[in-house]
Amino acid sequence: MDYSNIVSWERSGEIGVLTLSNGKENYLFTPDFVDFIKLKQWTSESDLKGIIIRGLGRNFSAGADLNQLKELSKDIKYLEGKINKGKEILDFIEDLGVPVIAAINGVCFGGGLEIALACHMRIASEKALFAFPETNHGLIPGLGGTFRLTQLIGKKALDIILNADMVNASYAFELGLVNYIHESKDSFEWAKGKLLSMVSDRPKEVVNYTMQAIRNAGRLSRVEALKIETELFCRLAIKMQSH
């Protein structure tokens, strides 16, 4: 197992597991919650086909440590740099060529929810709770949460962010914030099974191209996305002939 800040990385076959570990609530000390260089090293392993992000223990993450945030805010330029680095990390996770699943138990608040939103899928236990509590503290989500939540659930994001109310797993599923709910208190093993069902019998290239094509669908024009889809399909078809 390798450690960076409050994050550990371990492999389970073709799956990598990124674990947040910082006390009962798994608070984030800084917006750039993981060493970016190490994250790039971990996720570049050639045989890696998928990643699960989880919190150690009962909770995914309660978000920022407010006392630490107050200290960081004494130097606004420094804080701004940390926030931008945190956003860069989440953009990197979102753009990975393998599927990333957030396995969510307990609370998933603030920065913790922003990490989960950067994942490609969210699987929650029945007792999971979601919230952006920032407005209760005179803040707003700062790691891309306003954008990603709005992209995901539309104008309902306004209610969740401005009211700062807790959302339970069933309502989160209804909103489309969560992809699956599992009855177990610990969603990790089910998330692992789900991820393996998607990638274990498929070549790494097929996984990578699928991720690229789906990402293009959300970012490029229809014409551009479909042109690249054809190119990716033909590359795989050529390889199929050699088998």
Number of strands: 10
For the terminal residues, how far apart are their CA atoms? 37 Å
Number of continuous helical runs = 10
* SSE order, one letter for each helix or strand: EEEHEHHEEHEEHHEHEHHH
Multimerization status: single chain
The share of residues in extended strands comes to 15-25%
Word description of this protein:
The protein has 243 residues and is an alpha/beta fold. It has helices at 36-43, 66-72, 76-94, 110-118, 145-153, 156-163, 169-175, 188-199, 204-219, 222-241; strands spanning 2-4, 7-12, 15-20, 50-55, 100-104, 107-109, 121-125, 129-131, 167-168, 180-182. It has a seven-stranded mixed β-sheet, with helices on both faces. It has a three-stranded mixed β-sheet with strand order 6-8-9. The protein is globular and about 60 Å long.
How are the elements arranged and paired?
Layout: E1 2-4, E2 7-12, E3 15-20, H1 36-43, E4 50-55, H2 66-72, H3 76-94, E5 100-104, E6 107-109, H4 110-118, E7 121-125, E8 129-131, H5 145-153, H6 156-163, E9 167-168, H7 169-175, E10 180-182, H8 188-199, H9 204-219, H10 222-241
Parallel strand pairs: 3-4, 4-5, 5-7, 6-8, 7-10
Antiparallel strand pairs: 1-2, 2-3, 8-9
Helix pairs in contact: 5-6, 9-10
